Amino acid sequence: MSNSLLVDRIDSLIRIFLYILIFWLPYSPAVIESCVIICFILWLIKRGVIVTSPKRSARTPKERLSGFLKDIKPEPTFLNKPIAYFLFACILSVTSSAFFAQSLHNFLTKTLEWFIVYFLVVEVFKDKKHIYIALAVFTFTAFSTVLDSLVQFYMTYKDIFYGRVIDPGSRATAGFRTPNGLGGYLTGIIPVLAAWIFWGKQKAFYRLAVLLIFLLMIWSLMITFSRGAWMGVFFGGMFLLFLGLFPKKRLKLYFSLGIIFAAIALGISVFLILANGSDQELFARYYTIQWRLSIWSISMEMIKDKFLFGHGINTFMRVFQAYRGNFFMGPTYAHNCYIQLAAETGVVGLLCFLWIIVTAFHQSLGKIELNFAQNRNLAALAVGLLSGIFAFLVHSFFDTNFYSLQLSVYLWFMVGMLVSIDKILDAQKVWKDVVIEG
């Protein structure tokens, strides 16, 4: 078997395990971990096959070294530079942490996992059929999760996979530990299906089937009673509508204005969410918001004390206990991913993370009009993924999405698919240009 054929076989195996990962994503963190480990081992084997290619033996030692360094690098993308800076900021955070061993362990086993998933997806999703298979698996799994949540909420009061019991009339969780986990999962996929329904090009039967699943997802989202997820989907939907209505030539300007509007609206929403309810509901909402605001206030003190590089990756709960003073509260996350990221990696880490996100949006927004001219279905998926990522990031302002194994892998899988689509469409454009010139 030739080396190139062996590399293709390894890529196929990696894709299979990535499909398995997204199939089990709402249900089994253990399967996610196993799939990531297996895929990474296969990636290392692939790199070994590449660097031991017979062609390498014909090169000079200098050429072999240069080729080796090139071959072991991750797939080149427009996010590589900001990701490298973010990882460097995380390393500085680890080295300056008072809990070095814990921080290093979590950096190696959690933070690096984000980008392992991202680079694996980008590297092996090379063709539109790979993207469509991933979309089909996502849709089937999301549909199963939605049915699970509806049966749990209205009939059995327990989810199908784990059998976790909920009180009648409480909040649906499906296979997730919390309702907010289910809400976070739905925030990502709902805008993707919306874009596929309204902008994709497929037969009426498939469009109606996806529309039915989409409506069931909205229903499932409502019974999570996760207000943060509701706001995420709302802003994700507005972002999707925004991409469809505004002139493409001034899209980046409108997007910047939209971000400012979203930031203002999010602040107003924190206060408006207290209104329009019974006294009991009002008290519950008030308590929840006060609880979060108290955590955020304490977190700000943590950030001030280690402003640049933070207290260390995934040390928030441990450090928080030393800062809470007389405030009665057990170990907890910040329930705002950006505040927690700043507390753990410092403002430097937070800015580098935002650099990754802004770069992803900036590069993708700049190609929307061209992408629709290239391939309508892939372009619709790219727009849906952008909107889904946006919705997920809004929800992360109110919850712990970055610190959930399932949801963090989910985010970086979506980012990887977005960049893969960009690379596929770029390759199609180059091919067409060559044909035209020829």
Care to give the gist of this entry?
By secondary structure, the chain is mainly α. It is 76% helix and 0% strand.
What is the general shape?
globular
For the secondary structure, the number of strands is 0
**Secondary structure category:** mainly alpha
The whole-angstrom Rg is 23 Å
Distance between the termini: 34 Å
Quaternary class: single chain
DSSP helix count?
Answer: 16
Query: Which parts are unreliable, with pLDDT below 50 for 5 consecutive residues or more?
Result: 270-284, 430-438
Query: What would the average pLDDT be, to the nearest integer?
Result: 84
Q: What fraction of residues sit in β-strands?
A: under 5%
Can you give the helix content as a percent range?
Answer: over 70%
In sequence order, what are the helices and strands, one letter per element?
HHHHHHHHHHHHHHHH
Largest sheet: none
The count of domains is 2
Features:
single chain; 438 residues; mainly alpha; disordered C terminus
Walk me through the structure.
It is a single chain. Mean pLDDT is 84; it is low at 270-284 and 430-438. It is globular and about 70 Å long. 76% of the residues lie in helices and 0% in strands. The protein has two domains: 1-54; 81-437, no CATH class. By secondary structure, the chain is mainly alpha-helical.
Describe the secondary-structure layout.
Elements: H1 3-24, H2 29-51, H3 61-71, H4 80-95, H5 100-124, H6 128-156, H7 179-199, H8 204-222, H9 227-245, H10 251-272, H11 279-305, H12 316-323, H13 337-365, H14 368-374, H15 376-395, H16 405-437
